[in-house]
Amino acid sequence: MKKVLETETIGVIPPHKRHGKPSDLFAVWVGVNMLLLTAITGGLGTTVFNLPLVDAFVALCIGCLVGGLAMALHSAQGPHLGVPQMIQSRGQFGSYGSFIITVLVVVIYMGWLASNLVASGLAFSNLVPGMATWQGILLLTAANVLVVIFGYRAIHFMMKVGAILVGLGFVWAIVMIFYGGHVTAATFSQGEFTIAGFTGTVTAAALWVVAFAPYVSDYSRYLPQGTGNKPAFWATYTGVVIGSMLPMTFGILVGSCIQGNDIISGISLLLGPAGAYLLWSATITTSFSNAVNLYGAVLCSITAVQTFKEDFIPGAKARTWYAIVLGSIAFVVGYAGHDNFLSMLMNVISLIFFTITPWTAVNLVDYYLVKGGSYDVDSFFKRNGGIYGKWSMPALISYFVGLALQIPFLKTDLYTGPMVALLDDTDVSWIVGLVLTSILYYLISSKPGLGASASYSVSK
Questions:
Q1: By 3-state DSSP, what share of the chain in percent is helix, strand and coil, each rounded to 5?
Q2: How confident is the model over 90-113, as a mean pLDDT?
Q3: Which of 77, 215, 328, 377 has the fewest other C-beta atoms within 10 Å?
Q4: Can you say how many angstroms the Cα of residue 259 is from the centroid of all Cα atoms in its chain?
Q5: Percent of the chain at pLDDT above 70?
Q6: Which domains, ranges and CATH numbers included, belong to the chain?
Q7: Burial, 222: exposed, middle or buried (Cβ in 10 Å; 0-12, 13-18, 19+)?
């Protein structure tokens, strides 16, 4: 039982508890994407954005390949430092500066968690006669909480099961749609290519992958320290790209073969009884794989508290209570938003890109170009930030300037920037934020008087 139940939370993983190999990361990032929400996100290309099938597929490829680069570069940090991603972020932002980002990341986790709960809750209501959507959401919330209570090993195991169980199901379903005659010459010609639609599909796919960045190291931190950057990077990159593209391709295919935008109902319509298997297997897998969002929210919440309570490095009991509380909140959010699911999903996508892109830029530039992966890990856990201080002005200036630079290019339900109309109704805010924040942080990170430390070292 002790071997199955994870006893660690946000502390450094000691050498004697390190285990596994890079290929484990491949299985995790294939399995974690075997979700109905992944297919729905891909399906946006032919439903919401109304692109032709081939154009939507190309856009998905570009989004996953580009987004996967940033995400996998974060993953490679885990084996070296042995801490969760947002603890490591204190090396760039300082202890209090990182607190701000960590709270934003918790909100993002909860958005993804609730979105996945709704997608699977809707599937359950289609599969089980008489079951209301809220009942499906409640059932899946309980499953997520259970997996998080057991922790790291349970998540890895469930992801491997999902990679096989649902991965083969998506491959088989794609073949069945073609074999069943649902795809005709007209299927490839319907829809209309627009720059806004193509860019929107690229953005949705890239975001799906980049959204893992704030917690990808949570699943690589247990690997032996000598694993190396390249093996961890390639195992993560290939896993997340393949894992994302498979269900997303299925999603755009279903979207191009149905009327309207209800991908879940479309699966049953196109595949009949065979669709029921896919819905069941994907829903069951989602009930466990969505735990990665709850697990990340728990670790980030503990990280936020530890900012002000230096000796707070709790174990499994605290993880249990945090999981129950945050899971309950996610249930309420999912229930409240399930009637306007696609709108909620698009708003979550916009929020994630807006807040995460500048952080990703600062973290990657700092780790790979400024400090070369050399950090004082002990300082991560000090209330005063150790050698990194409470506030790191280079990172904070770059982050908030990056946020501001995105605003004119932003397109959401709540606000559309003036540059969107000039760019043919296209949202390129995440590209602007990523590129300009990276350049800005690199230029000012070593300027004297801004709080940059002169020396950095890994301390285990």
A1: 75, 0, 25
A2: 89
A3: 328
A4: 29
A5: 92
A6: 22-340 (1.10.4160.10)
A7: buried
